[in-house]
Write a sequence for this structure.
């Protein structure tokens, strides 16, 4: 992976907080020295529960191209059921990374040419004390485990800052546990 | 003479009388007061002033006797119609000579 | 309750200059003149295009001695809101904001903005001067033109529809104050304005305005005709204070008298009603009688 | 301090920093997050202002017109059909010479309904006597809002700050949030020439005659034509005042430059792409790609569309082998409005000099049709190679 310019596509459902998760990663990236950070949700009418996508581009230089990501380096999937509804690997670069929230075992998936990282974020988040279904902070821990991109400390700080008025400790705990438990393949 | 130095860039009006010009010229009849019938005149004290109240043009003074500002009076005749003692009558404007008109 | 104002106690200070462009015998001139006396110096006016625009004068001369913002036809009440908002930020809430719009500017094109402001409860007084048509553009029908009136665009058959009851629409906004007034009863208008200035939210005034060219009568009879509208029970003077309906002035007295002048007299005083047939007049008379029977019943 | 927020937040933060007194808005996608933000600032007490949730866009601008006439610094924002619904008020605001700042979050207009980006809404308001400034990123949005208040109040002309819906309004990117103290130093409180007040009564926007007329002091006052002429004259001189605003801003904030145009790799370029808004930044990517193919091309973003910086544009394009205009709007029945304006500027300043460049026109992204960067590069490459068409060419059309 070219670490000067990284494209991450997030797949979630309306109301699941994929935008917030992408925003936290964007913030951490900017502080880490990525001058160019652009995060763009799918444009249009957002409806709770419907599949949504968010693009996150991270670059060492200012980004002038705001068009949606066509060939992501990484895709983050907040709900394993989306695998049936959306072509999450569309355009994913060969050797690209899939970060997947799933209760199923890592071995039960077979993505040729891609590297898969899985964790049961839904369960982990409940364990961390978050309401059921709140997975957007936990998944950040998995992303970091799979990519080694920004360092978990930086992301934890970002989470606690974003959620400073809404259970910052529980949210960061979810990310920490997810970071520990994520199963990442080669 | 132009208006370049006029102080406003917008339509910014300041108030003053006679925006419509000397509206007295609109008149075809003019009000004439008979002080012998006019209530405040007869009593020589503030009273009635119905003509003052209903004058649309604010050309009747609230005085004894009430006076008509013929510069602006349009001659609608409401004062004559509303006067409870018929002290005001409307007289054909043509009866008044040009000289007399200029004096007003 | 404050003492009723009479002619002698009515303030002598005038806020309108003589020599306006209003038509000879204009009923609006009377209502406006007395209305401004009640509002007083600390007032900012808002006016959409209407006869009042002409009455107020052409640039650079104004007939009105109060500050006034001329606004687009549909935006009167919203503009009042804007001035109010500014006065709030300036700490000048003692200044009254008063909108004066015609019946077209109120009942037709301005209704949305008025409803919006009333729903928000913006604290200003809205005056609809109702000469029952687009008189400034040559007397076309409006939402408040009465049934049977010939106008420039109902030229032969007369208007076929009922007059829109704007005060009732405004009362449905649960305003603190709604009043129906007439240019023929200026002191009633004066007292009503004085009584509501300190009430909260939007206050709505509907003022019946005789119009010599639009209604077709000799200018000298303007007050008589305005009075006839009330004394026939055709147009009622009332106020609705916090939801409480009450007839006022001459209309209140009619309840005591239990006697109305036949509405035919009102219709026959104006050429715009010339096409009304006896049967139509009888029909309208029945409606008036039914309305008043209701008033009498409430009085018992 | 740098923050990462969406474009609507950048605009809202700018308005807050400018200490607007009265805000009125009606919701329309994609403007809504901007005005929601402002209502949060006002309700939480972070911002001392009156927020009026009006019942229509027509009323939104009515509130601003009246509030501004009474001396308040005002703000509103809208998009698409909301702007079209305002149109009467838009004309009124400039005729009344009120320094209103309005964000136009550019969106396609109906029919048919479409909530996505193009610029037909603001372009269709070109001739309303407003200043129109287009932004290409969030830094420009927040900085332009701040500069706009200073400029609008200096010249008594309202300003539309335009930025692309979704592409900028809903996209997050980092930008510098100016310090309040610096903004206060840049932008003094609004001091109107006249504000409605009972101690100095004036009747504003009264009927004004075709000819001049004496006022109550016996001085000759303008007719309607003089008032309208002055709007035109002062819009033209606004170009100079805009340069002053830019210099002043740069002095305090350390950023800014040419206020009218934003050239990129234009100096040695044979060909220059021209546009308004975010597409001009996207074109930088195309230019970089073509430069690698040794094609000498640059891109020039036009910041001020009205007043039109004709001279600056003509000077920048003088002697080029070709100019290619990319637009997200069209003057139906002819060509892109910017295309026509640009051609007339070139004709005015360069006709007969032998350095008048040929001009071509592309229409792109109508109704939010994705403008793929590769397609844009390809269009540019084709236009450089030879004249594509006499008529405007629509990029990505799937007929």
């Amino acid at each position: 992976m070219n670490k000067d310019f990284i494209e991450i596509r997030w797949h979630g459902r309306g109301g699941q907080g994929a935008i917030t998760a992408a925003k936290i990663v964007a913030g951490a990236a900017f502080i880490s020295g990525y001058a160019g950070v652009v995060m763009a949700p799918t444009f249009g009418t957002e409806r709770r529960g419907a599949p949504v996508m968010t693009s996150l581009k991270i670059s060492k230089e200012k980004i002038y191209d705001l068009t949606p990501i066509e060939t992501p380096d990484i895709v983050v999937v907040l709900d394993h059921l989306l695998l049936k509804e959306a072509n999450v690997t569309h355009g994913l670069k060969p050797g690209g990374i899939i970060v997947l929230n799933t209760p199923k075992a890592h071995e039960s998936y077979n993505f040729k040419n891609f590297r898969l990282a899985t964790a049961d974020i839904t369960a982990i988040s409940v364990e961390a004390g978050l309401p059921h279904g709140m997975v957007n902070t936990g998944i950040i821990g998995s992303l970091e485990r799979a990519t080694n991109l920004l360092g978990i400390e930086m992301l934890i700080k970002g989470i606690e800052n974003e959620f400073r008025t809404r259970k910052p400790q529980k949210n960061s705990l979810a990310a920490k546990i997810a970071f520990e438990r994520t199963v990442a393949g080669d | 003479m132009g208006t370049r130095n006029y102080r406003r860039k917008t339509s910014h009006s300041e108030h003053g009388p006679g925006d419509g010009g000397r509206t007295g010229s609109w008149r075809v009849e003019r009000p004439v007061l008979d002080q012998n019938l006019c209530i405040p005149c007869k009593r020589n004290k503030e009273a009635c002033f119905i003509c003052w109240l209903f004058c649309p043009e604010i050309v009747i003074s609230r005085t004894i006797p009430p006076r008509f500002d013929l510069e602006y009076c349009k001659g609608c005749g409401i004062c004559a119609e509303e006067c409870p003692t018929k002290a005001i009558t409307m007289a054909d404007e043509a009866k008044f000579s040009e000289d007399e008109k200029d004096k007003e | 309750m404050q003492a009723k104002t009479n002619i002698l106690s009515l303030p002598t200070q005038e806020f309108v200059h003589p020599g306006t462009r209003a038509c000879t015998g204009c009923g609006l001139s009377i209502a406006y003149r007395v209305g401004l006396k009640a509002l007083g110096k600390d007032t900012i006016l808002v006016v959409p295009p209407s006869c009042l625009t002409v009455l107020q004068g052409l640039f650079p001369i104004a007939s009105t001695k109060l500050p006034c913002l001329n606004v687009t036809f549909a935006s009167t009440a919203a503009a009042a809101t804007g001035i109010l908002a500014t006065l709030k930020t300036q700490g000048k809430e003692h200044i009254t904001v008063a909108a004066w719009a015609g019946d077209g500017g109120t009942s037709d094109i301005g209704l949305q903005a008025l409803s919006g402001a009333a729903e928000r409860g913006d604290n200003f007084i809205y005056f609809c001067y109702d000469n029952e048509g687009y008189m400034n553009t040559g007397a076309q029908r409006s939402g408040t033109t009465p049934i049977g009136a010939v106008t420039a665009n109902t030229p032969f058959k007369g208007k076929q529809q009922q007059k829109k009851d704007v005060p009732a629409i405004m009362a449905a906004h649960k305003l603190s104050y709604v009043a129906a007034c007439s240019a023929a009863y200026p002191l009633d208008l004066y007292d009503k304005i004085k009584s509501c200035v300190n009430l909260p939210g939007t206050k709505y005034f509907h003022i019946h305005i005789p119009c010599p060219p639009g209604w077709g009568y000799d200018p000298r009879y303007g007050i008589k005709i305005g009075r006839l509208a009330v004394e026939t029970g055709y147009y009622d003077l009332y106020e609705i204070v916090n939801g409480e309906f009450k007839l006022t002035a001459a209309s209140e007295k009619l309840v005591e008298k239990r006697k109305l002048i036949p509405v035919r007299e009102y219709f026959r005083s104006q050429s715009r009603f010339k096409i009304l047939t006896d049967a139509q007049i009888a029909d309208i008379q029945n409606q008036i009688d039914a309305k008043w029977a209701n008033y009498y019943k409430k009085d018992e | 301090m740098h923050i990462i927020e969406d474009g609507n937040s950048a605009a809202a933060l700018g308005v807050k920093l400018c200490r607007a007194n009265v805000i009125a808005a009606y919701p329309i996608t994609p403007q809504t997050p901007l005005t929601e933000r402002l209502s949060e600032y006002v309700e939480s007490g972070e911002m001392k202002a009156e927020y009026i949730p009006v019942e229509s866009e027509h009323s939104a601008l009515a509130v601003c017109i009246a509030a501004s006439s009474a001396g308040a610094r005002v703000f509103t924002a809208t998009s698409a059909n909301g702007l079209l619904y305002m149109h009467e008020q838009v004309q009124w605001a400039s005729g009344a010479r009120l320094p209103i700042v309005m964000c136009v979050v550019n969106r396609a207009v109906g029919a048919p309904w479409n909530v996505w980006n193009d610029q037909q809404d603001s372009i269709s308001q070109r001739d309303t006597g407003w200043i129109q400034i287009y932004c290409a990123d969030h830094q420009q949005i927040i900085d332009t809002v701040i500069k706009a208040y200073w400029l609008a109040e200096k010249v008594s002309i309202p300003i539309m700050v335009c930025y692309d819906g979704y592409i900028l309004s809903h996209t997050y990117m980092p930008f510098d949030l100016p310090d309040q103290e610096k903004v206060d130093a840049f932008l003094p409180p609004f001091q109107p020439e006249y504000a409605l007040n009972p101690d100095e009564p004036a009747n504003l926007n009264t009927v004004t005659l075709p000819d001049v007329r004496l006022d109550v002091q016996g001085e000759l006052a303008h007719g309607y034509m003089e008032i309208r002429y002055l709007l035109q004259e002062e819009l033209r001189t606004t170009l100079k005042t805009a340069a002053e605003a830019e210099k002043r801003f740069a002095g305090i904030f350390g950023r800014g430059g040419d206020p009218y145009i934003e050239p990129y790799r234009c100096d040695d370029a044979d060909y220059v792409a021209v546009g308004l808004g975010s597409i001009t930044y996207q074109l930088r990517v195309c230019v970089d790609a073509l430069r690698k193919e040794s094609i000498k091309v640059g891109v020039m973003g036009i910041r001020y569309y009205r007043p039109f910086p004709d001279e600056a544009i003509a000077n920048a394009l003088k002697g080029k082998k070709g100019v290619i205009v990319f637009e997200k709007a069209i003057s139906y029945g002819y060509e892109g409005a910017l295309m026509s304006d640009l051609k007339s500027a070139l004709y005015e300043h360069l006709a007969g000099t032998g350095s008048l460049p040929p001009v071509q026109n592309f229409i792109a992204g109508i109704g939010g049709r994705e403008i793929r960067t590769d397609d844009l590069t390809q269009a540019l490459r084709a236009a450089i190679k030879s004249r594509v068409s006499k008529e405007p060419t629509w990029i990505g059309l799937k007929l």
Observations:
- The first helix of chain B runs from residue 39 to 43.
- Chains B and A do not touch (no CB pair under 8 Å).
- The two ends of chain B are 32 Å apart (CA to CA).
- The first strand of chain B starts at residue 12 and ends at 15.
